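Minutes, methods subgroup
Present: GH (chair), OT, SY

1. OT presented the first of two proteins processed in the latest run. Sequence and structure tokens recorded below as shown on screen.
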Amino acid sequence: MSDTPFRWNKIIIPAFGPSVLFGIANGAILPVIALSAIDIGASPSTAGFIAALVGLGSLAGNIPAAMITSRHGERRSLIGAAVLSVLALTLCAVARHPVLLALGVLLMGLATAVFYLARQTYLMDAVPVHMRARAFSTLGGTQRIGMFIGPFAAAALMHMVGLAGAYYVAIAALVAAGALSFALPELQLRDNIGVVAPPTSRMSGIASTHRHVFLTLGFGILLISAMRASRQVAIPLWADAIGLTPAMTAVVFGLVSSIDMLVFYPAGKIMDQYGRLWVALPCSLILAASLFALPLTGALLSFSLVCMLMGLGNGIGSGIVMTLGADASPSVGRTQFLGLWRLIADIGTSAGPILLSSLTALISLSAGIAATGAFGLVAAVIFWHQLPRHGGPRRDI
């Protein structure tokens, strides 16, 4: 970056606007993908698999996303991700066979991986290090705001035109996201943009050189991601187990989301001023405590309070994955490192609900939820030993 004083107003709309719009798009389509599949003749099990392809596409797309971003730069990658997303959702909207819908959903997942990585690397260049955590927390928070808005916007249009309305809302949001990405101010190009080593050797070299970081902090991030994904399964399952109606569960989810959205900026400021540990540690412990406590609830009030505590733990961790990844990334091979970092986080996101479901089938739902909570204790130990007690990013990784 240049020595010119940094000003938020130069990047706030083009940098964070696409995040809100991508969140709106995801929030609009995620609740209806399975319903769309059933509507065109898929079985419930096939519909569930098609809905999971968003996450699987993102997981598979992390390494290609690193190569694309490294070769073409962040701004072009963001625009390309928006274009691919629009094409994918258009295919979903017109699909009359489950295979076409599955292809569209998979492409959406791949585009999402490119978008997430490109916006992270862009902010790393655009924002000074002493404001990095606030930038990434705000990025995560704006995504949450979009996810909160999306289902309501989709519901309004679906009332008039049916399930396709959700895809129309998402397409409109992504066209706007592409336009805002086009308006991103150009940054001075890094030396390694456009010069990419052979993908296999580069990725394997980065993985080998930074294996200690991936096996320590990376494993902590994997556990955090697993807890975050599991809570979205644990909450409705436990609500059903204690006899709450779907309407009550939806209201609780709304309360959790509102707390989640309120605390992201203060969390980023704490990370910048006092160090990453003082957000990573409470995030891990609060998520762990709330997951341990969830099976002890038996009524609406206690269930709601524990879920709101879970929202607090998740909200203060907004941006923690991106911030720690940015802190640990090398100056050479940065995008490749971040692609591997996102891959680790996405593995946790995918594995968490699977493990919860497996333990529920083998033992019980309460045991599965409690076991997921134990991840937070392990993550807290890792962060306590690996992150500095004071100051911003550590300098020795």
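2. SY then presented the second protein from the same run.
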Amino acid sequence: MTPPLDADKQIKNPDTIVYPVSSFAPLMKPDYSTEKLAIIRCLSHLANKEAKFTFTAGYFNMHPDIESKIQSSLCQGEIITASPKANSFYKSGGISYYLPHAYLLNSLNFLKSMQGNTKHQVSLLEWQNGEVNTKGGWSYHAKGIWISMANEKWPSISVIGSSNYTKRAYSLDLETNALVITKDEELKKQMFDEVEHLKEHTKELKIEDFEKEEERQVSWGVKLAAKLLSGML
């Protein structure tokens, strides 16, 4: 094992810095978790209209503080989330059967909340590759954040780790992530390529889709189930 560098031998002005950030909410009273604070700090860059971002979580149920940052963003961005048919709970038994459409309801509510925002430049992309639990069908559970600052071609900030960025994740779960900040062009290009790969099986989701497509009709039963399942989302 390589010993740690002495202080006088540490790299000055490195190309890349990695910060470990974690959420230990169930274990800490008071809570000294660093992850959500770091995420919110990163998303503060979305107030720069020259920035760009991509946000993804398989379960579309962002923590209100995170959603607020995205809703008030001034820059171009995209959110990638799972189609109901790419959700691991699709056609499951019991009350969890309603989870995919509960997340779909969240997508609809998000689109409605952004509808009157004239500065809105955020697209909602839905990922689907076949139908989960069938031959050739994939589920989607990717998660991450990528941010390109003004005048940058590729992302220079990324968050990699376990968090789903939900209320549950920051209250009931243990989460750990790596916040990566880089000026290395090769690494930035790899981050960009990762996002492009995630987008290969996506299409933009719009409010009109909920009106045109029968499978996107959100019933009162789903709305009621969403309230009952709020602790599981």
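Chair's summary of item 2: The chain has a mean pLDDT of 87.
Next meeting: continue with the remaining queue.
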